Automatic annotation (TrEMBL):
Protein name (Swiss-Prot/TrEMBL): Uncharacterized protein
Source organism of the structure: Deinococcus psychrotolerans
Matching Gene3D superfamilies: 3.40.50.880
GO molecular function: gamma-glutamyl-gamma-aminobutyrate hydrolase activity
GO biological process, one term: polyamine catabolic process
CC terms in the record's Gene Ontology section: cytosol
Length: 212
């Protein structure tokens, strides 16, 4: 049985705009009712937060990682630049950060990494909607050896940013989760997976506990 190690801790977390905001709201309402969630849209509020989460959304503007747009969809440069500024402020202030899907890609780009703009055409590896990932390092310590995860993205990590440790990979070798002290990124959507598998509470507890 899973133990809720943060069941009585009062915190305020900042959440960037997410395509799965309803799942995120349900997650905290069900498992962390003592935590106050606040949507943030400025780096100036970071000092008020105990932790910050960036969720899913459209593709990132390729110019942010030094590329022309070859296959990125629905990009919003103004939003991307604003959210990158927030993440840079979060990392500088050492506020625990969790990135989900787009948010994980933002973490990699903020630290100098790059993306595949389309996995199928550029890498030759289309991603199924559900697939296996294998954990390593701190990922294995926290989440076990492997898990079935969901996948709604057509992009992925190409060059991993300096200082990030890969802690999960897909069977084709594509990075699926990465980490540095104080920050975690996962390419899938644990806020949805948690409805059927409480193991993912360990990921959120890890983040809320400081992501050490």
């Amino acid at each position: 049985m899973y133990t809720f190690i943060l069941s009585s801790m009062k915190m305020q977390i900042g959440i960037l705009e997410s395509s799965r905001k309803d799942d995120i709201r349900d997650l905290f309402g069900t498992h962390y009712p003592q935590i106050t969630c606040r949507v943030i849209n400025s780096h100036l509020t970071i000092g008020e937060m105990d932790a910050v989460l960036a969720g899913g959304g459209p593709d990132l503007t390729p110019s942010l990682y030094g590329q022309e747009n070859r296959a990125s969809r629905g990009v919003n440069p103004k939003r991307d630049m604003g959210e990158l500024a927030i993440i840079e402020a979060v990392l500088a202030a050492r506020v625990p950060f969790l990135g989900l899907c787009r948010g994980a890609q933002l973490l990699n780009v903020a630290l100098g990494g790059t993306l595949w703009q389309d996995l199928e055409t550029e890498r030759g590896s289309p991603h199924p909607e559900r697939h296996l990932v294998r954990f390593s390092g701190r990922g294995a310590q926290r989440l076990g050896d492997e898990a079935q995860v969901n996948s709604t993205h057509h992009q992925g990590i190409d060059r991993v940013a300096s200082g990030l440790e890969i802690i999960a990979t897909a069977e084709d070798g594509l990075p699926e989760a990465w980490y540095r002290p104080g920050a975690i990124g996962v390419q899938f959507h644990p806020e949805t997976l948690i409805k059927d598998d409480l193991r993912w509470l360990q990921l959120f507890d890890w983040w809320l506990g400081g992501a050490a």
